[in-house]
Specification:
By secondary structure, the protein is mainly β. It has three domains: 92 residues, Sandwich (Jelly Rolls); 84 residues, Immunoglobulins (Immunoglobulin-like), CATH 2.60.40.10; 175 residues. The chain has two helices and 30 strands. The chain has a four-stranded antiparallel beta sheet with strand order 10-9-12-13, with no helix packed on it. Strands 4-1-6 form a three-stranded antiparallel beta sheet. The longest helix has 5 residues. The radius of gyration is 26 Å and the shape is elongated.
Length: 377
């Protein structure tokens, strides 16, 4: 069987067309010596996706004798200007039972990982997995599924796994095993309430994660006697704070840096009360903290203020109300700015001479509706 792989396929459109998220169709076909176009397959491309995507076209059903491949762009009737890009086109013959391709990890929880892939069709698919670096020949667990979207469950939390996939096209034809990649489960999520974190429990502290690579100022869990002396619970002297020297002090460098600290949590439908103590002083409108919850399908980009969504889009979070990624649940106080715009932040001006024992306390009621149930960081 002959297939053609288009490893890079993208669009550029006018802003008006992109706002409408219109879809255009690329028709792949053959051209005869007489110039006649014979369509073979169609590919629908969404204008809201700006990144290149990979597509596979099968010539299995083509019975003609044409020797040239052609592409035809079917414009919609809006008249929107559209430019399509094709890159890395490969035409090759594949085995009778082709290997699965285009693997994508769709998400993970503290005990499961979801994997999807593309294939032209098989009776079953086998997924073999094990801890990162496992001996593929002698070890590993194999699960069988009819679908090209497979969720592997009963995994260890905070653990990286390797995955391999093959197709069982029928009772006698199998594809080769293909390495799909590696993916890790998240830390054990908070799921039992009430939950209290005073940063005094080392085991619990180890479940916190940070995205702050190469930043001059970083989050640290530890003791700084100058600031962490008393909170509303009056429980211990440890806390989570920003430090320029790995936790020796709570001082910071006067340079731009972005640091994320997060902890997985699972929220079922219901009403929750969330409270925390904080102190944050420095340069007003420059030094601030955002507190909230982000669906685990998105992630924090280390070394920047960007949040990357599942589809690859990003939002640069600042203290303005407008800069919020999809699904973000804000847990910072809303403050009116000097203009009509509101913003979210926790910040105290250094001119107020905040004393070490003068902490602020936030108390928030959060309602989780059925559409918001799930894992967050």
């Amino acid at each position: 069987m002959i297939i053609m792989m288009i490893n890079g396929l993208g669009l550029r459109s006018t802003a008006a067309a992109r706002q409408k998220e219109q879809k255009h169709v690329l028709i792949v076909g053959a051209v005869t010596d007489l110039g006649e176009f014979e369509p073979i397959d169609t590919i629908e491309v969404n204008l809201s996706t700006l990144d290149f995507v990979k597509k596979i076209v099968s010539f299995e059903s083509y019975q003609g004798s044409a020797k040239h491949v052609a592409f035809k762009l079917d414009y919609d009737l809006s008249g929107a200007a559209v430019t399509m890009y094709l890159d890395d086109i490969v035409v090759e013959e594949i085995p009778k039972c082709a290997c699965p391709d285009y693997f994508k990890f769709e998400g993970s929880t503290d005990n499961s990982i979801a994997l999807s892939f593309e294939h032209r069709g098989a009776d079953f698919y086998e997924v073999k997995y094990g801890h990162k670096g496992f001996d593929f020949t002698n070890d590993g667990v194999v699960v069988t599924d009819k679908n090209r979207f497979v969720t592997i469950s009963n995994l260890d939390f905070d653990t990286e796994y390797d995955f391999y996939v093959r197709a069982r096209c029928n009772s006698v034809d199998f594809s080769d095993w293909v390495y799909a990649g590696s993916c890790a489960t998240i830390s054990e999520a908070i799921s039992v309430f009430p939950y209290v974190c005073t940063f005094e429990d080392t085991k619990e502290n180890n479940r916190w994660r940070f995205a702050q690579e190469n930043q001059s100022n970083q989050w640290v869990i530890g003791v700084d006697t100058a600031y962490i002396v008393s909170d509303s619970l009056n429980n211990g002297n440890k806390g989570l704070f920003i430090s320029k020297d790995g936790g020796f002090s709570a001082q910071y460098e006067h340079s731009t840096s972005y640091s994320w600290a997060y902890r997985p949590i699972y929220l079922d439908e219901g009403v929750y009360r969330i409270s925390y103590d904080w102190t944050c002083y420095g340069e007003q409108n420059s030094d601030y903290v955002r507190v909230g919850m982000l669906p685990i399908s998105s992630y924090f980009e280390s070394g920047s203020n960007k949040v990357i969504a599942k589809d690859g889009s990003s939002v640069s979070m600042t203290y303005t109300k407008a800069n919020q990624p999809l699904g973000w649940i804000e847990l910072s106080a809303e403050v009116k700015g000097t203009s009509s715009n509101s913003y979210y932040r926790l910040s105290m001006s250094d001119t107020t001479k905040i004393l070490a024992e003068q902490w602020s306390h936030e108390d928030i009621t959060l309602i989780i509706t059925p559409d918001k149930v799930g894992y967050y960081n």
